[in-house]
Design goal:
The chain is α/β, with parallel strands linked by helices. It has a single domain (about 5-270), classed as TIM Barrel, CATH 3.20.20.70. Helices cover about 35% and strands about 20% of the residues. The strands form five sheets. An eight-stranded parallel β-barrel has the order 2-3-6-7-10-11-12-13, surrounded by eight helices. Helix 1 (about 30-40) packs parallel to helix 7. The structure holds zinc ion. The site of zinc ion (ZN) has 7 residues, from loops.
Length: about 280
Amino acid sequence: MTTPCIITVAITGSVPRKEHNPAVPITVSEQVESTHAAFEAGASIAHVHVRNDDQTPTSDPERFARLLEGLRRHCPGMIVQFSTGGRSGQGTARGGMLHLGCDMASLSTGSCNFPSIIYENPPELIRFLARKMLDHNVKPEIEVFDLSMLYQALALADEGLLRRPLHVQFVMGVKNAMPAVRQAFDFMVDEVTRLAPESTWVAAGIGRHQLEVNRWCLERGGHCRTGLEDNVRWDASRLAASNAELVARLAALCASHDRHPASAAEARAILGLAPATS
Ligand code: ZN
């Protein structure tokens, strides 16, 4: 039996991409359909943002609720991870949907620059979101866009604002933030292993770095993320056809590293989440 690899599919995102790909799902029904195909291809976590019909990002709880309901119905057992990312709302509104019953939510533990904006995560907002996740039994995925954010997460865990074991994601290749450099990746994996060895971890490579970072994760025994939020291209010559296509490519890559895509039940057990009830 090979070791399971949890595949996260980041289906939509909030950044209007220059190289727009019509396969990016925008409406709730498109998102459910796209996630279902990705689930069938081997994804066990859906990382989701919601958009208004005019494509602008929103943190509207009603829209998150409709998406969650659709995913629960069509992707039984799949782990649903809401984004609390900064483009979808201002301040504490970014956590306005954490009471809806999602399994996980993203939590950035610091600020950095994005391609054209400051990604603002002031200390008091981080603490507010962490507290709300604790109150609603939502497991955070710590988003590490820069090295200091790893250490901030560990400090919050020491304070009791984050429950151990942590689940940490290193995000590499965002313009103006941390580049996709192998030495930096290895250093962060070594640090999380040294300082919080009970943690689980994953990395996301943005744009053309997606597949390369997938390989690094598989080599080092981590979990993997793919999806149209991070990368809309299959390769330099064509756009990705769907989220499912990217997941299927990653699932095949797992096999070549003696790994298999974790089932939803396996992923829940690895992350310490309750088994699905429906
Ligand atoms: Zn996201």
